[in-house]
Amino acid sequence: MAPFVYRITPYDPADLDAAADGDSTLIAYDSRERVAAACVAAVAGFALDDGVQQMTIDNPMTEGFFSFSVLVGRGGHGLSGLFPRDSVGFHDGARVPLATGLGLLRAMVLREGAWCRLRADNGFFVHVGDRDDIYVGGGRDQESAVSRTRLLGLFADRVASSPYDPALDGTDASRSADEEFWSEVRALVADRGGVLLEERPTGNAYRWHRLTTAHEVEAVRERLTPRARLAVWPDLTDDVEGIRAAVVRGERLHLLVQQHPGGGFHKECVAEPGGRADVPHPRITEGPGHRHALVPLERADRHPLLAAVLPDEDGVLRARWRTNRSRAEERRTFLGSLRVGEAVTGVVASGLHDVGVYVHLDDDLGRFLGFLRVPEMSWTRFDSVDDIAPIGRVIRAEIIGIDFAREQVSLSMKALQPDPWQHHADTCKAGDTVSGTVTELVPLGAFVRIREGVEGLVHLTELADRHVGSPQEVVAVGDQVRVVVLDVDRRRRRISLSLRRAQRG
Which long-range contacts (CB under 8 A, 24 or more apart) does 120-125 make? Predict the structure, then answer.
């Protein structure tokens, strides 16, 4: 580690741990661009003072450092405008101008998706953390740059080291994708008739290649990304039923890889466990010519036929891919441990009062992971969300959906409560006379609560024997009335009532 290391943050360092929890940022939305601009200006000052003109990209990730959610960041993962289409040039060991490095820094501060470490030949480096913290270092005292950083409204202090120091990296003993490796690939293709080649040009980014001939092996080899990680898997299959059954079993997290009839690949996605083997899975594309594969996602579950890392053009293997798991990866593993139908306990964290509330499912990886929508809070009417799920309340709910793409767990408190409507439907029939309370007046008539959690509609034509222009002519909210049950519609959960027929009796 360089002898001089500084931490830059928009927060007072004394409050840094409390200010950001790693899964989100407390920088206000309308302040992010301003904070990012200040960070870029500050780091530019450090770099220019150290004479840096070029930087080298180290261990890049396209997504998965801050989050995997499709709701986070912008299109292109922050790489648009910095690199050509398909992010060509954003790879481990790529040398970029300082201006491009600062553009990457901006994308990281804004949490647009991409992440990497940056280093210069003279030992200068830039590391962006997951708590809105930036670490810069080099071989010289940078107190002038520190002073300018503080004038930009940021906090800058000297620290012992960066928590993202490459010396702290966990790494695997990687095999080089040399001629011997490619000879083995060709042998597998000849023996099996085809294999699936996984190319990972950056962390959590994939390109897929189906290899069925020795010629295809050589053609694909020519266009692989420098220093990419490679894994060879069994060939894709057209056995949709087998793929669907494996997804339903949900024994481990898989990436669902799908090739369409034209030979290209759909964007891979997490094969969300659950469902039924005899029901089409929403993520699986069926039809003639479509082929599929399930590739294990967790490192401990991955056992490819072959694996290697591309060496540099001189044949030397220099890439050292870090195996340290990001919080986003740990969070995805936590998501994968949950199952639809399970009952969980959580703490209401914050809310959108007309939509629902966010729920902490635990104090670490489950923060803000649950979402409880208003219709799933209770079978009975309530005036305010605070009556059911105020911030800070511990609640118990059932998991009714898990969305990996949005990193969200849908919850239902109702699912753990008896359904009063169904119970009433079992005991109530057309022709019964019951008592109730008028709860709401609408242009079509009046709603009457005939028991807790069960309401029926008295249509305008059933309010009185005479013509009624509006329900206010006959009843008011809060009136106690007797009504006759006209119909119980189980499918649509509707009960039709009559006030005028009860009055006749």
Answer: 120/47, 120/50, 120/52, 120/54, 120/55, 120/56, 121/54, 121/56, 122/50, 122/51, 122/52, 123/2, 124/2, 124/46, 124/47, 124/50, 124/52, 125/2, 125/162
Look at the pTM and tell me if it is higher than 0.90: no
Phi-psi map region of 392: left, alpha, beta (phi>0 left; psi -120 to 50 alpha):
left
Which tens digits make up the pLDDT trace of 17-48? 555 555 666 677 678 899 999 999 999 999 99
Q: Which among 424, 418, 486 has a CA at the least distance from the CA of 451?
A: 424
Q: Which residues are 19's β-sheet partners?
A: none
* Helix axes of 143-151 and 32-49: crossing angle, nearest 10 degrees: 160
Residue 174 C-alpha from the chain's centroid: 29
- Residue 401 is given by DSSP the state E
Strands 125-128, 115-119: pairing kind: antiparallel
Neighbours of 123 (CB within 10 A): 15
The C-alpha atoms of residue 424 and residue 379 are separated, in whole angstroms, by 13
- The partner residues of 231 in beta bridges, in order of sequence, read 198, 307
Least Cα distance to 498 among 440, 431, 439 occurs for 431
- The tens digit of pLDDT for each residue in 77-99 reads 899 999 988 788 999 999 999 99
Give the Å distances, CA to CA, from 472 to 445, 446, 478. Answer: 9, 9, 12
> What pLDDT is attached to residue 352?
76
3-state secondary structure 293-335: EEEECCHHHCCCCEEEECCCCCCCCCCCCECCCCHHHHHHHHH
